[in-house]
Amino acid sequence: MSRQELLSPEGLRVDGRRPNELRRISCRASVLSSSDGSSYYEQGNTKVLVAVYGPREPRQRAPTTTEQAQINVEFNVAPFSTSERRRRNKGDKRLLEIASFVRQTFEGAVQRSVYPRSQIDIYIHLLQNDGGTLEACINAATLALVDAGIAMVDYVCACTAGFVEDTPVLDLCGVEETSIETPDLTVAVLPRNGSIVLLQMESRLHVSKLDDVMDLAIEGCRHIHKKLDHAVLTAANDLAEKLSH
Description:
This protein is an alpha+beta fold. Helix content is 31%, strand content 27%.
């Protein structure tokens, strides 16, 4: 797809958004009764379900990690998540890569020293993919961890940004993300102090454009933080209402 097709003369993108607009976000906590924490997260047409179990006794005792909780992440993709009907096995390189990014991101955000000699398991299921998979997984995992009552230094909020025709664009959809002409990166931050906990780029981006793209992604993270916080408050209010009856 050409650059002209990705950005119209009127400045609109393929899905009708302005360059600095996020896709519609819908999220809920406490969607599964069998897990310690759970969440359902939609960003545009990308849909993710997360379940968190723990802290609990580790399956394998490792002397080097007894003073801090071990975080395990398993990422799975539904065969119907894209138009390409392909079943991925657990050893798929892309699945392991995303799981690794999520694990590394939360190892610095979860207060693991509070839970010695334990493990926290995060199971992520991608139900539908239309771009921004990593950001959606991180945001959904944040919501599920908070729902599980896991101690964290702050929310972790992630967002993508890229460049189309020398124009910085926020929150890339699937068409934009798969275009070889659209460099993009994913940024995850701790909103309260602005610390960057993840910076991951899929393609080459000129250094002169990096600041503009990062600033736009960080601004997107701030808006996502409000959505996640609202979902947590809604779940807390629902729980309080159930307990009052």
